[in-house]
Write a structure and sequence with these properties.
single chain, 4-stranded mixed β-sheet, 2 domains, mainly beta, 3% helix, 389 residues, Immunoglobulin-like, 1 helix
Length: 389
């Protein structure tokens, strides 16, 4: 049998025809998707009227080609709005992503809200959307509290900053600085009298000498079992039962200018003002680490939530933030203050007291929208605390 060999050029052309993708499909089409998302939806849950929780969404291109320049939009309920956008105008390459922050600000109690977050690219098929839902439970009933060092009083306002009362509690003793609140009481540290004061949540029944024997009582914190405070001059953290018994002025030792203090279910945190660090120990006081976070600038107040540790950098006029494990420290997470003394956090906002401006500041939980004059008229405010109502 005779064999016929095809010319080499013809063989090559046939091979190219078999493997080459059709025009416009080189590498596959772009494929965009939002996260977090469950079944194409994200629920903000229930928020009080006046609260403004923020969620960061990422859109990723897992397709084979770039998306083309993106456009980001929200349609539907006006309760949802974009507060930051690092995506619009960006062309996402294969495997790349960008982020958008969306705020949920319900305005009508009991009403459910729905909107759609959309990312659209110039390339065909480059589109993704996620349905946003949320509901309003009612008006914010909680409060913000702060000590006025200049007046020896405790101030209070609603969480939206209204109805500020600079004399909510009077006769707080001498130079009240730190403050904490739980479901029944307000606690504060009397720096000048070396005591911890307490009052009922409505401001009545004030006792400026609830706990005695401190040494420059500064920061105060409270959990379900104990009251904690910092002894500024001795460099220790004190602790007592909620009823003021079993006082231990040396629960944690080795601090350096111990200022603010905060607690969560696992750890105690404190600000070392002299050393410029944030310390941390186990909830039982063991294994103290005085350099858990370094690089702060005369830190005073400290706060913690389920994701981050926050502190007030008194000299730099900033609020710092780090991950719960101490990584990712950002000393200028919020800037523009004059002398931030205390810091507090709830589900929607970060709050701080400014002793030089005599104000209480507030920003969204992601650090955007800082308002240095959220509450005015304080008199050298020290710490700051919030309750959810």
């Amino acid at each position: 049998m005779r064999r016929y060999l095809l010319p080499a050029a013809l063989v090559l052309a046939a091979a190219v025809a078999l493997v080459a993708p059709a025009s416009g499909q080189a590498g596959g089409a772009p494929s965009l998707a939002w996260s977090p998302s469950t079944g194409g939806a994200y629920d903000f849950g229930t928020a009080k009227v006046g609260d403004k929780p923020v969620q960061i969404f990422a859109v990723k291109n897992s397709g084979g080609t770039a998306s083309g320049a993106l456009t980001i939009s929200v349609s539907g309920s006006a309760a949802f709005s974009i507060t930051s956008d690092a995506c619009t105008g960006t062309a996402l390459g294969k495997g790349k992503s960008c982020a958008v922050s969306v705020e949920f600000a319900p305005s009508t109690a009991g009403q459910s809200e729905t909107a759609t977050l959309v990312a659209s690219g110039k390339k065909s098929g480059a589109k993704a959307d996620v349905t946003l839902t949320g509901a309003a439970a009612g008006g914010s009933t909680g409060h913000i509290y702060w000590p006025n060092e200049g007046d020896d009083t405790i101030g209070r306002a609603k969480l939206d900053g209204t109805d500020a009362d600079e004399n909510f509690i009077t006769g707080a003793a001498s130079f009240p600085f730190g403050i904490a609140v739980d479901g029944a009481h307000v606690y504060w540290g009397n720096f000048g009298e070396d005591t911890i004061g307490v009052a009922n949540l409505d401001g009545n029944g004030a006792n400026a000498s609830f706990i005695t024997g401190a040494s420059g009582a500064s920061g105060v914190a409270v959990d379900g079992k104990y009251v904690y405070w910092t002894n500024y001059f001795e460099g220790t953290i004190g602790r007592a039962n909620l009823d003021g018994t079993s006082v231990d002025q040396n629960f944690i030792t080795g601090a350096s200018g111990a200022a603010g203090v905060a607690v969560d279910g696992n750890y105690v945190y404190w600000a070392n003002q002299f050393a410029g660090t944030i310390g941390r120990a186990n909830a039982d006081g063991t294994a103290p680490d005085q350099t858990f976070i370094t690089g702060a600038s005369s830190p005073t107040g400290v706060a913690v939530n389920g994701a981050h540790v926050y502190w007030a950098n008194q000299l730099d006029g900033t609020i710092g933030r780090a991950n719960l494990d101490g990584t990712g420290a950002e000393e200028s997470f919020i800037s523009g203050g004059a002398q931030p003394n205390g810091v507090a956090v709830d589900s929607a906002y970060v709050y701080w007291s400014d002793g030089a401006n005599n104000t209480i500041g507030r920003a969204n939980l992601d650090g955007t929208g800082p308002d240095q004059n959220f509450i005015t008229g304080a008199n050298s405010p020290g710490g700051v605390a919030v309750d959810a109502g």
